[in-house]
Amino acid sequence: MSYLFGPVNSRRLGRSLGVDLLPHKTCTYNCLYCEVGPTTHLTITRQAWHVDDILRQLHDCLPGLASSLDVVTLAGSGEPTLNLGLADIIAAVKALTSLPLAVLTNGSLLYLPEVRRDLLQADLILPTLTTVREDTYRRLHRPHPALTLQSLLDGLFACRRECPAQFWLEVMLLKGVNDSEAELAALKEVIHRLAPDKIQLNTAVRPVADGAAQPLSPADLSAIAAFLGDGAEVIASFPGPAPRGLGLTDQNLLAILARRPMTAPHLAQALGLPLAQVQKRLASLQQQGLIHPHLYHNDTFYHCRPPNQ
Questions:
Q1: pLDDT tens, position by position, 270-294
Q2: What are phi and psi of 47, to 5 degrees?
Q3: Helix (H, G, I), strand (E, B) or coil at 167
Q4: What CA–CA distance (Å, rounded) separates 46 from 48?
Q5: What is the distance between the alpha carbons of residues 295 and 117, in angstroms, rounded to a whole number?
Q6: d(Cα 79, Cα 61) in Å, to the nearest integer?
Q7: Is 3.40.50.620 the CATH number for 4-247?
Q8: pLDDT value of residue 198
Q9: Are 50 and 84 in contact (CB under 8 A)?
Q10: With contact defined as beta carbons under 8 Å apart, do 38 and 96 qualify?
Q11: pLDDT tens column, 175-188
């Protein structure tokens, strides 16, 4: 089992090597908009999942890949702060490369002092905030029963105070769910107090766990960015710079598609490969039953479930 995926050209971070810290869909939330699918293991219990294997793969692969990367990103198919080995994994990356290390997190466990301590060596922390209303929070995230909006907000503010990393806040917006004037006005006030280094607006641009998660239009996102003010930018469908081409095995391609559904053009752009070559490989993998197409808003996305972990 590979816990590394990519490199891919991230919309937010550039050329990124992903590190998946968890078994498939182990998370504190069961979000409407999750592109990896419904959560199968809803938990707030931290465990040391696959730490030795992750460390071994980093030692084997990262030194040879570092020259083609802009960042190493802890992300993948669940909430990375659930892994008790988080600090050891961050320390290993920092020992192996001078590249910045980013952590993509839903922020739900930042209220725990031990989680914030684990993140002290990270260069970028990218948490999510969608609403400051409890009912909307529960509708959007369908969290573990022990979690509340207040615990999320407490954790975000504590992390902002204590962690020296850059703090880039993702705001996931869904049509008819958290895009009303009242929702956005309340959210703006809290974001102003939180003072993130960046505010990044996203919407459901890929296939999602629940059909109730509908995307906003680019015009709507731009208007909300203007309302939220300086530092707000739209990252949904944001095209990054054309990456350098890099050969990729079918195993690595499957590892990418297990963590994020992508179209053939998205893959070609992210991997720096000709579209025709990507389409040929996707057709072969589909014929073998290893990936599955899914039509979403008139685009064909490809996805696969990783093997049991």
A1: 666 777 777 888 888 888 888 888 7
A2: -140, 160
A3: strand
A4: 7
A5: 42
A6: 23
A7: no
A8: 95
A9: no
A10: no
A11: 999 999 999 999 99
Give the CB-side neighbour count of residue 45, counting CA atoms within 13 A. Answer: 5
Amino acid identity for residue 172 in this structure: M
Q: Provide the whole-model pTM.
A: 0.78
Can you spell out the DSSP letters for 102-132? EEE--STTTTSHHHHHHTTT-SEEE-B---S
Tens-place pLDDT, residues 75-88: 878 999 999 999 99
Give the pLDDT confidence score for residue 267 in this predicted structure: 75
Residue written as token pair 């290893």: 290
* Residues facing residue 167 across a β-bridge: 125
Positive or negative, the Cα torsion across 15, 118, 171, 225? negative
Per DSSP, the three-state class of 169 is strand
Per DSSP, helices labelled H in the chain are: 51-65, 86-96, 113-118, 134-141, 149-162, 181-194, 218-228, 250-259, 264-271, 275-287
Model confidence pLDDT, tens digit, residues 31-40: 998 888 889 9
Q: How confident is the model at residue 240 (pLDDT cuts 50, 70, 90)?
A: very low
Single-letter amino acid code for the residue at 168:
W
Distances (CA, A) of 242 to 9, 11, 107, 254, 274: 8, 11, 30, 21, 12
| AA identity, residue 134 | E
Burial readout 110-126 (b: 16 or more C-beta within 10 A, e: otherwise): bbbeebbebbeebbbbb
The C-alpha atoms of residue 197 and residue 268 are separated, in whole angstroms, by: 31
Rounded distance between C-alpha atoms, residue 79 and residue 73, angstroms: 13
For 29, phi then psi, to 5°, come to -120, 165
Would you give the distance in Å from CA 59 to the centre of its chain?
23
Q: What is the pLDDT of residue 238?
A: 39
- In whole angstroms, what is the distance from residue 91 CA to residue 110 CA? 19
